[in-house]
Design goal:
The complex is a heterotrimer of chains A (275), B (286) and C (256).
Chain A: E1 12-21, E2 24-34, E3 39-43, H1 50-58, E4 65-70, E5 73-74, H2 80-87, E6 90-93, H3 105-116, H4 121-134, H5 150-161, E7 168-172, H6 180-197, E8 200-204, H7 208-214, E9 217-222, E10 225-230, H8 241-248, H9 264-267
Parallel strand pairs in A: 3-8, 3-9, 6-7, 7-8
Antiparallel strand pairs in A: 1-2, 1-4, 4-5, 9-10
Chain B: H1 2-28, E1 40-47, E2 58-61, E3 64-75, E4 80-88, E5 99-104, E6 111-116, E7 129-130, E8 132-134, H2 139-143, E9 159-166, E10 177-180, E11 183-193, E12 200-207, E13 218-223, E14 230-235, E15 248-249, E16 251-253, H3 258-262, H4 271-274
Chain C: H1 9-34, H2 38-49, H3 53-77, H4 84-122, H5 125-131, H6 136-174, H7 179-189, H8 192-220, H9 226-255
Helix pairs in contact in C: 1-6, 2-6, 3-4, 3-6, 4-6, 4-7, 4-8, 4-9, 6-8, 8-9
The chains are: A alpha/beta (275), B alpha/beta (286), C mainly alpha (256).
Chain lengths: 275, 286, 256
């Protein structure tokens, strides 16, 4: 890496990102900054492309226009080698954990180490056990992924995501399907990792209550743009129609109930009835 | 990790097994094969002609396998084949004046070396030479006269009928070809036994093109090749008169009992196979 | 490549062949990168090769035994039972060994490769590898492809050995063909290059390349649903079987 971004620079800076998928505009000149060392939450109605946004940050997807700067590097312009080098510094927690079903918990966490380093077995073992201890699953090292509950699998995936001590962790819907206890555990982990290791975290989630406990900053995305942002504790009261509908759970508002369609009356063969 | 090691070991075993199978097949079941055997002793024999004898062919005494042919080499000085026989050590009391002969198992079978005991009191020793040998019989030479070309004459040009009587028609069947000089000229129309004369009366349908067959011609039942079907061969005589429709051919030669004739060449361990007809009847089963 | 409309069978088949061909290029381009995953290749060799041994051995034995039995009855009509060793060996080396091994391999290992890769895609495991900066083509696809390529000739050799053993068992041990005649006829007629190398190495390498490609390709392009995985597994067997038999004809015509 030749250029070091100043510590005050945001870790991720998205400028004018425009993405069209199958004729549908997902992002429309989106601007967004992820500050270093903070926990940032990205919220929004289903289908607004929150997960897609994470994929842009990691280079799994490329936009049609705009910049995605991660640590000063423009992700869409990176070569495969540079992109892979960047990804080694990014942890990604999949919604369904995506543990490798062939391997047990230990080998799953050890997988990135084995792939990218030639560390001696003792060292690998120590690192893996440390990470498993951090997520409270050192005792489950010998289990296969199929034997884990959803919450445990997510914690294993988290241990795997932090095995390289990344600079950035992306959490894709980390709270879905967790019971209250598991939810608290995951929340505590996210917070602890952020505080103790200084890892910048990005959460994609719907649960405002959970986010209030963990996030420093919230973006609300709708219609391909950031429609609101701010402190999670106060954003619901900022008075914009978007936040009122989203956090109030109202059916009517800027987010339409109807999926975009042609005229209803015409579709029913009642053309002219509305005239 | 022990898990990793077990994969590696199992995979290694698999690869070794696969290559071992490949090596075994390539060396042991093909022409690359070496002779290999248990405890045995070797004996030399020189044959004037080994026919189709191959390495690893069996060596038999009284029909019982006692060893195998180890090597076959030409001795250029004597224009003879040097055959090394590996004989099982259990059979160590073979008289040193025994006779080695090359035989054929069945009509199509492979050749093997048969040893017939002599009278000597001395046993064959390791490396000894069997002085008395009989070469392979060139069966095809002896049976050459029975070989004929195949094919059935077509009767499109119309035909006329001749009769012939045989004391034995062998396996001759209706539809079998009638040949002259090896060329089909007609076919067998009917075969039936004469209840009075106690022989076989055969009606031959001869193509009209061939209407100048001398009336002293002979008819014989032959076999096409060793295992072919039987046919009637017409051997023209010298008479100026020609055979006409309905005439009978007086001179006939019945089917040769091939197995009688060549039986002495077909020495075989299985007595049932000696009785097999070379033509169409199935070979004897065990 | 989601569920395609079945408007035109021929066009679809051509498109599949074309896509598979391009996929092969991707695979081959990734071979150097996958050299660091040799361990994974060894592990896959265990799954597709060593784990297929049982079925290959049992089937090889029975194919050889049936062949020995049939040949005995047919050849005994001509008094030629001595040739059964030759015919067993040649039939197995030239056709039955490579073809039956490949068909069994497609059913046993091909389907499991397809289903495994399909499920890895459906459960985001491939995406997770991407995110861990591990190239799934180099780590998942290529090792399975190479393992299939290596395993096929080895399995075929084992199949042939068991087949000949089966033929020998029936012909010599049960039906009384002379042991020496059986072997001497075989060794005199079977040629290392024309029969063993062409059959076991050339043919089964070609079959291994095709079956593995189909299995990996089908898995890799599976729609990430349970229905998609089931459909892809079926297609692996169907496409592999057709490809094996068609390729066998072409290869036989060329090798003869």
């Amino acid at each position: 890496m030749t250029t070091f971004a100043a510590p005050t620079e945001p870790l991720v800076r998205i400028r004018g990102l425009t993405t069209v998928l199958n004729g549908k505009t997902i992002f429309d000149a989106l601007d967004l900054d992820i500050p270093r060392g903070k926990v940032t939450a990205i919220m929004g109605p289903s289908g607004t492309g929150k997960t897609t946004l994470l994929k842009h940050v990691t280079g799994q997807m490329r936009g049609d226009a705009g910049q995605v700067l991660v640590d000063g590097q423009d992700v869409p312009e990176l070569s495969r080698e540079k992109l892979f080098a960047l990804r080694e510094k990014i942890g990604y927690l999949f919604q369904n954990s995506a543990l490798l079903t062939d391997f047990d918990v230990f080998e799953n966490v050890a997988f990135p180490l084995r792939q990218h380093t030639q560390l001696p077995e003792v060292l690998i073992r120590n690192i893996v056990l440390t990470k498993l201890q951090a997520v409270g699953l050192r005792g489950a090292a010998g289990l296969m992924p199929a034997e884990l509950s959803g919450g445990m699998a997510r914690r294993v995936a988290l241990a795997r995501a932090i095995v390289f001590d990344p600079m950035l962790i992306l959490y894709d819907e980390p709270f879905v399907g967790l019971d209250p206890i598991a939810l608290s555990q995951v929340l505590k982990l996210i917070r602890t990792l952020n505080e103790t290791l200084g890892i910048t975290s990005v959460l994609v989630a719907h649960e405002l209550e959970a986010i209030k406990q963990v996030a420093d900053h919230v973006y609300l995305i709708a219609n391909g743009k950031v429609v609101a942002q701010g402190d999670p504790k106060t954003i619901a009261e900022d008075g914009s129609p978007w936040t009122r509908q989203f956090f109030g759970g109202a059916i009517d508002g800027p987010v339409p109930f109807q999926y975009p369609a042609d005229d209803y009356a015409q579709a029913l063969g009642l053309a002219g009835a509305r005239a | 990790m022990s898990q990793r090691n077990s994969y590696a070991v199992g995979t290694g075993l698999f690869i070794v097994l696969g290559f071992a199978a490949l090596a075994y097949l390539a060396t042991q079941t093909t022409s690359v094969a070496n002779t290999h055997q248990g405890a045995s002793y070797t004996v030399q024999a020189h044959f004037a002609n080994i026919g189709q004898l191959k390495e690893r062919a069996p060596v038999k005494i009284a029909g019982v396998r006692v060893g195998q042919v180890r090597t076959i080499a030409l001795d250029p000085k004597r224009e003879a084949a040097d055959v090394t026989l590996a004989i099982d050590e259990r059979y160590s009391h073979i008289p040193d004046d025994s006779v080695a002969t090359i035989f054929t198992s069945g009509l199509l079978g492979d050749q093997y070396v048969g040893i017939e005991y002599g009278n000597s009191k001395k046993d064959l020793a390791e490396g000894a030479t069997l002085a008395r040998t009989k070469p392979a019989q060139q069966l095809e030479e002896m049976l050459g006269k029975f070989f004929g070309a195949g094919g059935v004459a077509d009767n499109l040009g119309g035909s006329y009928v001749l009769k012939a009587r045989f004391s034995n028609v062998g396996a001759l069947s209706v539809g079998a070809p009638v040949k002259m000089a090896g060329v089909p000229i007609g076919s067998v129309m009917a075969v039936h036994a004469d209840p009075v004369k106690l022989d076989a009366e055969v009606e031959l349908a001869i193509d009209r093109k061939y209407d100048q067959i001398p009336d002293d011609s002979a008819a014989a039942v032959f076999t096409s090749g060793l295992i072919g079907t039987q046919y009637v061969a017409v051997q023209p005589g010298g008479s100026p008169e020609f055979l006409k429709n309905g005439d009978e051919m007086v001179l006939t030669q019945s089917a040769m009992q091939l197995e009688d004739l060549i039986g002495k060449f077909l020495v075989n361990g299985s007595p049932t196979e000696k009785k097999e007809a070379p033509a169409e009847s199935p070979a004897g089963k065990h | 490549m989601s569920a395609q409309p079945r408007r035109n069978v021929v066009t679809n088949a051509l498109a599949q062949i074309g896509e598979a061909g391009l996929f092969l290029l991707t695979l081959l381009a990734a071979v150097p990168r996958s050299l660091r995953h040799v361990r994974e290749t060894v592990r896959q060799l265990w799954f597709v090769g060593a784990m297929s041994l049982t079925i290959i051995m049992v089937c090889g034995l029975f194919v050889g035994m049936v062949l020995g039995l049939q040949l005995y009855y047919v050849l005994s009509i001509f008094g030629g039972t001595a040739a059964s060793g030759t015919v067993v060996a040649i039939a197995i080396y030239r056709e039955l060994g490579p073809v039956v091994t490949a068909l069994l391999f497609a059913g046993r290992a091909g389907t499991s490769v397809t289903a495994e890769i399909g499920l890895m895609r459906a459960t985001d495991q491939l995406a997770a590898m991407e995110m861990m900066a591990v190239d799934p083509i180099a780590y998942v696809a290529v090792p399975r492809y190479l393992a299939g390529l290596i395993a096929m000739p080895l399995l075929c050799a084992v199949f042939c050995a068991l087949g000949i053993f089966g033929g020998h068992l029936v012909g010599v041990t049960w039906l009384g063909i002379d042991n020496g005649t059986f072997w001497s006829n075989m060794t005199a007629t079977v040629d290392v290059w024309k029969d063993v190398v062409n059959g076991i190495l050339v043919k089964s390498l070609a079959f291994g390349a095709v079956v593995s490609l189909i299995a990996v390709y089908q898995g890799y392009t599976t729609p990430p649903t349970s229905e998609g995985v089931a459909y892809a597994t079926t297609r692996t067997v169907v496409a592999s079987s057709i490809a094996i038999l068609a390729l066998d004809f072409v290869l036989t015509a060329f090798l003869m």
